[in-house]
Amino acid sequence: ASYIYLKEAIVEGKGQHETVIPNELPLIQEVTTTLREWSIIWRQLYVPVKRFLVRHMIYDLIEWRSQILSGTLPQDELKELKKKVTAKIDYGNRILDLDLVVRDEDGNILDPEQTSTISLFRAHEIASKQVEERLLEEKSQKQNIDINRQAKFAATPSFALFVNLKNVVCKIGEDAEVLMSLYDPLESKFISENYLVRWSSSGLPKDIDRLHNLRAVFTDLGSKDLKREKISFVCQIVRVGRMELRDNNTRKLTSGLRRPFGVAVMDVTDIINGKVDDEDKQHFIPFQPVAGENDFLQTVINKVIAAKEVNHKGQGLWVTLKLLPGDIHQIRKEFPHLVDRSTAVARKMGFPEIIMPGDVRNDIYVTLVQGDFDKGSKTTAKNVEVTVSVYDEDGKRLESVIFPGAGDEAISEYKSVIYYQVKQPRWFETVKVAIPIEDVNRSHLRFTFRHRSSQDSKDKSEKIFALAFVKLMRYDGTTLRDGEHDLIVYKAEAKKLEDASMYLSLPSTKIELEEKGHPATGKSMQNLGSCTISKDSFQISTLVCSTKLTQNVDLLGLLKWRSNTNLLQQNLKQLMKVDGGEVVKFLQDTLDALFNIMMENSESETFDTLVFDALVFIIGLIADRKFQHFNPVLETYIKKHFSATLAYTKLTKVLKTYVDNAEKCGITDQLFKGPTQRHVQIIMEKLLRTVNRTVISMGRDSELIVSDFLMETFIMFKNLIGKNVYPFDWVIMNMMQNKVFLRAINQYADMLNKKFLDQANFELQLWNNYFHLAVAFLTQESLQLENFSSAKRAKILNKYGDMRRQIGFEIRDMWYNLGQHKIKFIPEMVGPILEMTLIPETELRKATIPIFFDMMQCEFHSTRSFQMFENEIITKLDHEVEGGRGDEQYKVLLEHCRKHKYLAKSGETFVKLVVRLMERLLDYRTIMHDENKENRMSCTVNVLNFYKEIEREEMYIRYLYKLCDLHKECDNYTEAAYTLLLHAKLLKWSEEACAAHLTQRDGYQAATQGQLKDQLYQEIIHYFDKGKMWEEAIALGKELAEQYENEMFDYEQLSELLRKQAQFYENIVKVIRPKPDYFAVGYYGQGFPTFIRNKVFIYRGKEYERREDFEARLLTQFPNAEKMKTTSPPGDDIKNSSGQYIQCFTVKPKLDLPPKFHKPVSEQIVSFYRVNEVQRFEYSRPVRKGEKNPDNEFANMWIERTIYVTAYKLPGILRWFEVKSVEISPLENAIETMQLTNDKINNMIQQHLNDPNLPINPLSMLLNGIVDPAVMGGFTNYEKAFFTEKYMHEHPEDHDKIEKLKDLIAWQIPFLAEGIRIHGEKVTEALRPFHERMEACFKQLKEKVEKQYGVRTPASLDDRRGSRPRSMVRSFTMPSSSRPLSVASVSSISSDSTPSRPGSDG
What we know:
By secondary structure, the chain is of the alpha+beta class.
């Protein structure tokens, strides 16, 4: 049962203006409208997460609404509940992208009429902030992650990966080094230092105290590392012992050699991203041994990463892993149970994203990359070992400065892995070199090379055979550059190589060698002093991570400013050019330097402005998003390190100067960024109102001032409308702004009418600006009510009305006020007015569409035509509809034209044209975002054909290129070529200048039509080549060659073109081209778009595409369509049904050889024309018509051979064209069948004449099947059906066809005679009786035929046994060439002017 519940209400106003306001709490009304709005959205939501969220929110609101309505809650609870309700509504609105609601303290919606603008703005800011906070809160609860952990991760810019090595299960048999690090598999590079564990041959750590405490933390990971697509945890195992594990006689063998053993790799991306977090889970990382000496460790790593799985045989590492937030200090504080002082710290190679003050670091990472070493006097390649050490310029070694990995002691020299007998070893081994800052400028890295022998006795005698070195400090005081260094390998006696003074003065890298004027290549050896440059090569790469060393000269100059004060001004200016990353790295030192410069020059003001600029530059850097993490560093610096009191006064002085000179813009741009800008903006707005008022009152006398003022105001308003000052969901603020604008624009309109309309004071530009502003206001996003929900639409209409109508009527009145000035606005104003009329608001349209008619009249009175208007509206309409505007309801104009005595005829024609264009453009727009490119192509062709028809060449070309681009996207190169050809055909081979619209594409650089046509032809030939359409390419090539040879005299281009042509001819003969199938497709039913509805098309299939695949492709485009089972045309019931029915079957293209092939040619040449340049396609199906005749089944057995003729030849500018069909009569079918039979006999005779060894069986079957009395030549029934008085009387028009059929029957006899003669020669004795019976039957048949239809005698068959008799050829070509298929007449175009392409001139 239903019942009516009466609600208390207040009624305001009367009649039309009556409004009913329920006597409920405003909040209850709000909840009600919110629920209605949300429920509509809820139905549309398919995203499950949001869907369930909305459901919960709706249920909550319903529950709370009933609680409030019950009236049983105490005041304080009611207050709390109201807060919950408003919070939930605001939160839900934000999630669903609805408008922001602004409220007072009690949660009631603010009335913009009763609230000042500033308060309203503040309320918006507060509401927006509260919703943001709530969203963040919800998010962290929703993700159900320990909020604490998430907050920590969100608050810290750095992370660390904690690794606990539980066990190494691996049969090594000797001591080993286990080196673990993080690796980026996509960049193939290590991103962290190594964590090194030394493992003993007994299967336990060397340092037995650390047995259950093998822990490391990989620090300094930042947000960029979290964003890496993949990160791997890589472990390399290096064996330390003898050269070959197989050798047993350990006493005689060299020991302590580092040899490659294998690797283990694990993808840790999910752990780094926080998707997997289980610190107790032990992960097994499978081990992959090295396969051979050329299997370098890095190569094995990449192989394992690429492989799906590793055949590890149970060998590998066991580890636990966990991602921790924070830098090393935070981690030690917050995770003491995991990370303590004994935990190894492996840093990232490179800086963390944030460098805290006090984080002093001075690391240089050195990677041994690769080398190439000549075997010298040895028979095989050397076993090269590289030793790395650090020396100062006096040749003294720096002790304990090399770190092979975290968790290990510092060493004085590092020895590389040895690859046995490898000429080009690739190491990729990295060590960290940490040198006291004061020693860096005196130090260099020394690399010595030694051959290691597996026999201890030999090994002892091996000396260093070469050396390379590189200095850590460059000549300009900056540090060695990051990246690869190709070092020179020097040879000399071992003693000399150990003496630093011998080599330090020499160049260390190939680049340096070239800089010093020595060629880096050339002779194998060059003598430099007592050292020789070897032809061996050696590359290293370095990376400097130092908070004290810079690689930037300008920054260094500033940091060391005391050493050269003359350059100080220059250095301060140069600071602005230094890369931000480098400055923030040395933030503390840079700030110290700047304040020291100020302090130590306290007497003068020389540097104050420069220092101020530099500080603004640095603070600006940190405001940049990229360096926002450095904010805490700056704050820490200000709190703890900044102590320059005097600096305040100096800086304040500079600031004052800048503010005083604010008009001379410069650094003020920097100052007024961010919050400052808001303050300046408020001041400007307050000033602006005063200025506006003053100018308007002042300007009563001075027209010029008012005109300028209005001009600027119009421009300013238009900018503000276009910029969306407030966020899109601040709907009240946006409407408030619009209300103010509307009032102002209307006031300014009065001023225009009063002051600037009469002949003397008319200001064209001012009026123009007014119209543009008014249209921009009307078409802005925030006023398009039809895009909003009904609730929002009702709210806006209720409060503000439809402002578009108000301004639209104003625009109309202003237009009609223009009087004789109107003509000055045609055609410029057509676009803006069109934009306005395309708004789907009926009243607005009724008011503004007549402006068009007025424009037409106006131009017609002035010039007796409305050509300018017509051109403009067609161009603009295309643009607007494509941009998403416009609909079906565009016919109002027609009524106006019909009533007008002059414009009736031409106006109506024009309006019909606009309506047709509109239909095509709307079709085109609907389909433009369709996945199905073929539909897009069809619509594009419809539009371009329309533009062709109305002779709008510019628009036609525009759509040609859209079509061409679609084809290229689908690799339809042939179709792309035909499309471009339509553009080329519009051009002449002449020196005429190109119209701008002809060179529509960026790629063409042509001044004349001839040049453009040349470029287009080259492109088209290229596409025809790609589409294997060499015949077409040749035809165009000939035309182009003619130009090159006789008009342009460009023999170079000609020779290139002819070479291409030759290649095309060769391709035709030699390349096998796939033959595409052709398919007829009918789209029946009203469910299809208009451009294909109830039409049949012939499609050219893709290479090797079978019908099943083609059908599947069709049906995916129309998933709701039903495939028809029959191939006969459907009835009206299906055509008029609301569904979609697709009919598809294969058709056979009919060969149409070009006339030039007048004599037999190679099949390779003809085969092209069997499937190309075809316009006629046939499909045969047997059909019985009328009652079945028991005596003669042929009389009503029809083969309905349908010939489809397409509108244009295929292939063309599309892969399909529309068709019309033809039905063929039984008599024609009989002629076809006789023709085919005769063809068949003749072909078989030819084969037997050419090849006497062919088996006789097929010939026996064929002949017997024809001469058998039961069949009697297969024409007895034709005689009964067609050769009767009755038939002749009923079908006098068939006389010629009947004669032809008789002729074919008569011709069958000589063919059969020849066949039987060959059969007699070849027949075996066993089959002799069969042959004799066949001969008797033939004799009977021959007598009958010759008596009735006459004798046909071919030229003597005996004389011409190897080739086809001439008369036989005649007998076949004659009937087929005049075969009576009058199909062209039914085509969509008349038979005498069949165009070859759409849009072409035939």
